[in-house]
Specification:
Radius of gyration: 15 Å
CATH architecture: 3-Layer(aba) Sandwich
Number of helices: 4
CATH topology: Aminopeptidase
Protein name: N-acetyltransferase domain-containing protein
Structural class: alpha+beta
Order of helices and strands: EHHEEEHEHEE
Number of strands: 7
Helix content: 25-40%
Strand order of the largest sheet: 1-2-3-4-5-7-6
Number of domains: 1
Distance between the termini: 12 Å
CATH class: Alpha Beta
GO molecular function: acyltransferase activity, transferring groups other than amino-acyl groups
Pfam families: Acetyltransf_1 (PF00583)
InterPro entries: Acyl_CoA_acyltransferase, GNAT_dom
CATH superfamily: Gcn5-related N-acetyltransferase (GNAT)
Largest sheet: 7 strands, mixed
């Protein structure tokens, strides 16, 4: 069995590597390094990484939402290095960041995704995310997005990074 990556909170020293991974995964839609630094400052325990053989191979970011009377967070990024995809790393990162969001009192986690992202959609649905709507022009770029939500009760059997 392949050795599992270490799943843990990111450090400031890893933000440059995290930005490179973000660019590789999302191209022109990647968060810039300045935004990643601010996300780290806002919610450091919800910016987590996967490390294997001392190399950053993935990250997941959830941010709190500030709305009147709504206690939810947004899953804004999940990236896994291309040679490590389909290894279970995305599932481990997602499960851990959802667990941490619940630990901070967030029972609902929202996300958006391109409808054609079949691997991402399958992973999200297997974790308990459901599609609420398809927004035709969510980012005002003409590309539709699925708006999905996850409820803490739906994730009772999230896999752990420890087996």
């Amino acid at each position: 069995m392949a050795e599992m990556p270490e799943i843990r909170q990111a450090t400031v020293a890893e933000l440059a590597d995290l930005a490179r991974l973000e660019r590789d995964a999302y191209g022109e839609h990647a968060f810039p390094p300045t935004a990643l630094r601010q996300m780290f400052d806002i919610a450091p325990t919800l910016l987590i990484v996967a490390v294997k053989d001392d190399e950053l191979i993935g990250h997941a970011i959830v941010l709190p939402s500030v709305s009147d009377g709504v206690r939810e967070a947004w899953f804004v990024a999940l990236a896994v290095r291309s040679d490590m995809r389909r290894s279970g790393t995305g599932r481990l990162l997602s499960s851990e960041v959802l667990r941490r969001a619940v630990g901070h009192g967030y029972e609902t986690v929202m996300m958006t995704m391109e409808p054609g992202n079949t691997a991402g959609r399958a992973l999200s649905e297997s974790l308990g995310f459901v599609t609420n709507e398809q927004a035709g022009d969510y980012f005002e770029d003409g590309v539709p997005r699925l708006v999905m939500s996850w409820q803490a009760a739906s994730g009772a059997s999230l896999p752990t990074p420890f087996g």
